[in-house]
Amino acid sequence: MAWSERLxxxxxxxxxxxxxxEGLNGKLLAAIPPSKKVLELGCGAGHLGRRYKELNPAxxxxxxxxxxxSLEKAAKYLDQVWTANLDQADIxxxxxxxxxxxxxxxxxxxKAPELLVTALRxxxxxxxxxxxxxxxxxxxxVVERMLIGDLSYDENGLMDRTHLRFFSQSSIFKLFLDSxxxxxxxxxxxxxxxxAGLTAGLIACANSLGVSKETAERALFxxxxxxxxxxxxxxxxxxxxxxxxxxxxxxxxxFELNVARSPGLRxxxxxxxxxxxxxxxxxxxxxxxxxxxxxxxLFCHQDVYFPVGSGFALSxxxxxxxxxxxxxxxxxxxxxxxxxxxxxxxxxxxAGLVIDRMRLYDWPEADSAVSLDExxxxxxxxxPLKIDPAMxxxxxxxDLCLAATRGAPPFxxxxxxxxxxxxxxxxxSLPAAFQGSAxxxxxxxxDTVGIRSLCATIT
Length: 459
Known about the structure:
CATH class of the largest domain: Alpha Beta
Low-confidence stretches: 1-18
CATH architecture of the largest domain: 3-Layer(aba) Sandwich
Radius of gyration: 24 Å
Number of domains: 2
Mean pLDDT: 93
Structural class: alpha/beta
Largest sheet: 7 strands, mixed
Helix content: 25-40%
């Protein structure tokens, strides 16, 4: 559906369509994977579980709610039900071995949703999934109330008086990541606004902050988010290495909301070095390198969030690098791997683990890479590799890969699977500056036809 079609929708509130405990969320149902054993938190009268069991007769569906009249109805359809306050419940009382846990409009009612989401890992299988419906509090109807100075609560909808926590698309993704889950925006409910002038003005304001039209529309017109999460197994020990983080900054809010408050960097005591006013990636890296105290240098975008555990995971990898290999070690978080170092472009594949905007990209790791995404790259402070100022802000990491493979002796950067969140405000179009960097890269390596990156193949 095009955004123009979405905006013709009425200012629709899904929670008003039927009695709160009697509803059935069709998009939430569609997002639930085939499962043998499901736990629904906030099951109401059991209509979602009843329909799922009609479609999957062999599945077990257990439900939890605190509204006893609704649970009495749910008990007729579900395999087992419990009455519980989720802010106080011992999660193990609901049993273990769940393939999937479902929550439709639940987390916003809790005092500490992050504690519940973390605890749910204990009762799921290692491949367990979490499927949720979450109201979006950056919706245009809420912004409208902020502008007129009246955030009065309602009986239902986004400003439901029983809501204790408010979530945006970015904040709920961070909560899931910090709780050990890999989120992906599976679907959403859209709702426009009758005042076209208001929406146009808000998009113009967002553009003035560097927010693309696509990103602004997603934030303003998404009413509810259907988010599917996969459990992530982190086996890292609490190792730390001296790490300095170099961050080119031109939008303070992006830096402060992402890199600066990343728990993954705080947990290892990383030195964070914002670099303002740099003219190129090479300029920013050189400035940061001159101030860095760490043995290892993490060069990343200002809009990257490193969740809980990511710092320890990276430290474990870097601590395992042999001293004689440290200067020649380059680590990326996403890019193009190769299965054939002797013929690098013969067998390439997407590699890494990154949540980019609202999508999860979960690919294998790569011991050898022909391209790294510039979102985040780690190098030793004594690396012989140089970032070329002529590359500007784009494709400099792919240039590093090509330079490394042509070194004497040659070596290949690697790509790891450590979850990071690229909380970008841009859309997916490539700017003119990217095309300029691509032309520079192609001219530097005329013998390489079809240089591959995640964004494009450069010819």
